[in-house]
Amino acid sequence: MPRPRSKSRDDLISSAMGVFWENGFNATSIEDLVASSGVGRGGIYSDFGGKEELFLACLEAYRARFADPAIQILTSGSNGLKSIEAYFDYFIALHENRGMPGPGCFIANTMTELAPQHADALRIVNAHSAQLKSAFAKAIRQATSASGNPIDKGEISEIAEFLVTSSQGLWSYGKSITDIRVLKRFKATLLNLLYHRLGRPKLNGI
């Protein structure tokens, strides 16, 4: 029989996510999670078995709450380049709203801290990266179709992977700077590289 879950489970994930997102896995203690959530140690162990299980639940919740809506931006638009721009704007706004230096991307933070030594964390990180690459590739195909400047599948895959790497690096860089305009300039430069490759005019104001 599955063990019962406490009513505080979802609230605990929400509060713990902020702590893990800000501090990472290793620097977060059970006492930190108790203090942030108001849930006792017994409640944490009853619902999740410990810090590791709670961290993974928070990482999955982050994907659903923040990463998946951003990917939806890439896949649901009708203008591929505008969709890519909107994706970057989404996370830049997230950093701006939370204050600079920003928190980075929880998934990107996990990629560098925990994923290399933790199989479950690596699985979640790789699943997100694959999903994001696929979404970027769709937006690029849409953009090349509209531009009349076709690009072969191999180059589309390479550009999509470059965008995944660039975006994760950008959010990590945002953890060490205080001026949101730096992220905005990075986004503009990146988009202009794409516009140039597709033979399109530069973004306005750049």
Describe the structure.
The chain has 206 residues and is mainly α. The chain is built from 9 helices and no strands. The chain has a domain of 139 residues: Orthogonal Bundle (Tetracycline Repressor, domain 2), CATH 1.10.357. It is 74% helix and 0% strand. α1 crosses α4, α3 crosses α4 and α4 packs parallel to α7. The protein is elongated. It starts with 8 loop residues before the first helix and ends in a 9-residue tail after the last helix.
- Could you tell me the strand content as a percent range? under 5%
* Distance from first to last alpha carbon: 60 Å
Secondary-structure-based class equals: mainly alpha
Number of strands: 0
Shape: elongated
What's the CATH topology label of one domain? Tetracycline Repressor, domain 2
Please identify, by name, the CATH architecture of one domain.
Answer: Orthogonal Bundle
Q: How helix-rich are the residues, as a percent range? A: over 70%
Q: Segments where pLDDT lies below 50 for 5+ residues?
A: 1-7
Total DSSP helices: 9
Main beta-sheet annotation: none
H-E order:
HHHHHHHHH
What is the radius of gyration computed over CA atoms, rounded to a whole number of angstroms? 19 Å
- The chain-level mean pLDDT equals 90
Assign the CATH class of one domain.
Mainly Alpha
